[in-house]
C-alpha cells in the first residue's frame, strides 16, 4: 500500500505534515469489512480456537479495531441526535474535546499499518534531504511521546470504568478509552512511518566511492520513499503573508489541489 504525504511550511519553522486522502477509500473499506462486528466474531479471531494461544500484536490490533468500530458507531449516533437533546449536547462536548487533539497526532494516526511506501511531496524551494529528516523527526518523537501517553491512558481505563455505577453516561471512561485508542494508533503510525523513511543511505553518500553492495543497499532502502519536489506547491506558497504566514484561502487552495483535509491542516496553523 502506498500513500502520499504533503509537507510545506506554514510560517517560519512551523511546518504542516498531512497525508493525501484521495487514494485509499477503497482500501479502507476492504480492510474495515474484515473487522469483527460482534463479540462472537471477535472471539473466533482471538480465542483459544485461533492459530496461536499467545497474545500477539495482531490479536491486539483486532481488539483495537473492534473497539474503534464500536466507538465510531456510537459517535455517529450522537452526531445524528436531534438538536438540543442530551445526546446532541454530548456530541458538542466531544467536538470540543477533539479540537484539543494535536495535529501531529492526527497525522500519525492516518498512517496505516500495512503501508509499504510513501511519496513525499514538498515545495521545490526546499531541500529534499531536510524535508525527509523533519519527517523522520516527527515520526521518532511520535513513537516516544505516544508510547508514554498510551500506557498512561490505558492505566486510567479500569479506574474510570468504576464510574459506571453512577446513573449518568460514563463520559470519563469513554474519553479515556478513546485517548488510549488514539495514542495506540498514533504510536503504530509513527513506528511504521519511521521505519519507511529511515535508511542507511546517508553513510554511503558520505563516501567518495560506492561499492556494488552499498549501491544495492541504497536502492533497496530508497524503495520505501520517493521525494517529489513540486513547483506548483512552491508557487502557491509564494502568496503567503510575511507576518501571519499562509492565509486560510491559500491553505484551502493547497488542500484542494493535493487532496488534504482542510480542518487538519488549519490545526497546524492554529497551534503556532
Automatic annotation (TrEMBL):
One of its GO terms (biological process) is proton transmembrane transport. The chain crosses the membrane at residues 149-178. The keyword Transmembrane helix applies. InterPro entries: Mit_KHE1. Keywords: Membrane, Transmembrane, Transmembrane helix. This is K+-H+ exchange-like protein. Pfam families: Mit_KHE1. One of its GO terms (cellular component) is mitochondrial inner membrane. PANTHER family: K+-H+ EXCHANGE-LIKE PROTEIN, TRANSMEMBRANE PROTEIN. The keyword GTP-binding does not apply. It comes from Lithospermum erythrorhizon.
Amino acid at each position: 500500500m502506498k500513500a502520499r504525504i504533503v509537507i510545506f511550511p506554514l510560517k517560519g519553522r512551523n511546518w504542516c505534515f498531512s497525508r493525501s486522502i484521495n487514494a485509499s477509500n477503497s482500501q479502507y473499506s476492504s480492510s474495515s469489512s474484515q473487522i469483527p462486528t460482534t463479540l462472537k466474531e471477535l472471539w473466533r479471531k482471538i480465542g483459544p480456537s485461533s492459530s496461536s494461544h499467545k497474545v500477539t500484536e495482531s490479536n491486539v490490533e483486532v481488539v483495537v479495531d473492534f473497539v474503534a468500530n464500536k466507538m465510531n458507531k456510537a459517535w455517529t449516533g450522537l452526531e445524528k441526535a436531534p438538536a438540543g437533546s442530551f445526546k446532541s449536547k454530548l456530541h458538542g462536548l466531544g467536538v470540543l474535546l477533539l479540537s484539543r487533539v494535536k495535529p501531529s497526532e492526527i497525522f500519525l494516526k492516518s498512517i496505516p499499518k500495512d503501508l509499504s511506501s510513501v511519496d513525499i511531496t514538498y515545495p521545490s524551494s526546499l531541500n529534499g534531504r531536510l524535508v525527509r529528516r523533519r519527517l523522520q523527526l516527527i515520526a521518532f518523537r511520535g513513537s516516544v511521546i505516544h508510547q508514554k501517553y498510551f500506557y498512561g491512558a490505558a492505566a486510567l481505563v479500569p479506574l474510570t470504568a468504576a464510574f459506571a455505577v453512577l446513573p449518568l453516561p460514563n463520559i470519563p471512561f469513554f474519553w479515556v478509552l478513546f485517548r488510549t485508542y488514539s495514542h495506540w494508533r498514533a504510536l503504530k503510525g509513527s513506528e511504521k512511518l519511521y521505519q519507511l523513511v529511515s535508511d542507511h543511505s546517508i553513510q554511503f553518500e558520505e563516501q567518495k566511492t560506492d561499492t556494488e553492495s552499498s549501491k544495492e543497499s541504497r536502492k533497496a532502502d530508497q524503495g520505501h520513499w520517493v521525494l517529489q519536489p513540486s513547483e506548483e506547491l512552491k508557487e502557491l506558497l509564494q502568496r503567503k503573508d510575511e507576518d501571519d504566514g499562509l492565509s486560510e484561502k491559500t491553505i484551502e487552495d493547497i488542500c484542494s489541489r493535493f487532496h488534504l483535509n482542510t480542518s487538519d491542516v488549519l490545526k497546524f496553523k492554529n497551534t503556532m
